[in-house]
Amino acid sequence: MGTVTPRSVLRYETWTIQPDREPDAEPVLYAMQCAVDGETSPTSKDFAEPQNWVLRHCGQNPSHHTYREIITRPWRAWRRT
């Protein structure tokens, strides 16, 4: 009796991704981060709130001029047939 070797079957599939816009998707969230001291605004569904935080933060810290926008956007992936 010979040696039995396991065989593998590989199946290549095409996947795609896109932003999740389904009704039950998580919301898109926004925040801003000060690049000088790393302080971060509260996260909000409305971009105006982090933007207002930046204006308050730079008013309290006149030398802080650089900020990062942080966007958390839900995505979904599925196999294309």
Automatic annotation (TrEMBL):
Domain DUF7848: 5-80
Taxonomic superkingdom: Bacteria
Pfam families tied to this protein: DUF7848 (PF25232)
Matches recorded under InterPro entries: DUF7848 (IPR057170)
Name of this protein: DUF7848 domain-containing protein
Origin organism lineage: Bacteria, Bacillati, Actinomycetota, Actinomycetes, Kitasatosporales
